């Protein structure tokens, strides 16, 4: 009589994946709290594990090391969640693409730029402080800046798809201006150092985009595209 073959139990179930995702979110949340409270250097993997109610081995298995954990925290803070969807494929960016009205596109960008900065600036402060003492974190700091710039260029292309830039302004210079307007450094200076409200910053963001980057309709000629 042929021997019965045991079916191997699969562990790649939706429930197991959701548990792993919940663990990842708990670790990221604990890391954010402790990094902001104590700083990157003073925060240990063991402390993060204890705050997240998991073992240190689980943290290492999920993120490998503290640097990778900080990198993942930056990504999640920018996106607003841990869904594997790039910023430029998010719903609000598609809303910008679909919106025919320029003023509305500006407001969408200003609103979401403000929300991203609200989430990320505390983490950037952690990153900035750690970069002064750790060459690996310094390289992560530079990499993050290098990655933000092309994203801002694409957002600018979407913003000006149906409307020209201000006369005499190149795409390269306009991207640099947008990069500065929407930078953590600018948000920190105005909101944290000068005490602006987040709503005030958002209004300034939209108004500055309009004044510095966009042609006055009916007056300026289209600007060069490169």
Structural notes for this entry:
The protein is mostly helical and 226 residues long. The chain is 69% helix and 0% strand. Helix 1 crosses helix 4, helix 2 crosses helix 3 and helix 8 runs antiparallel to helix 10. The longest helix has 30 residues. The radius of gyration is 22 Å and the shape is globular.
Largest sheet: none
Backbone shape: globular
Q: Uncertain spans, ≥5 residues at pLDDT below 50?
A: 4-8, 218-226
* Helix-and-strand structural type: mainly alpha
Give me the Rg, rounded.
22 Å
Number of helices: 10
Instruction: Classify the helix fraction into a percent range.
Output: 55-70%
> What percentage of amino acids are in beta strands?
under 5%
What would the keywords be for this entry?
226 residues; mainly alpha; 10 helices; 69% helix; globular; disordered C terminus
Which helices and strands appear, and what pairs or packs with what?
Elements lengths: L13 H25 L6 H8 L3 H8 L2 H14 L11 H8 L3 H30 L3 H25 L11 H11 L2 H10 L4 H16 L13
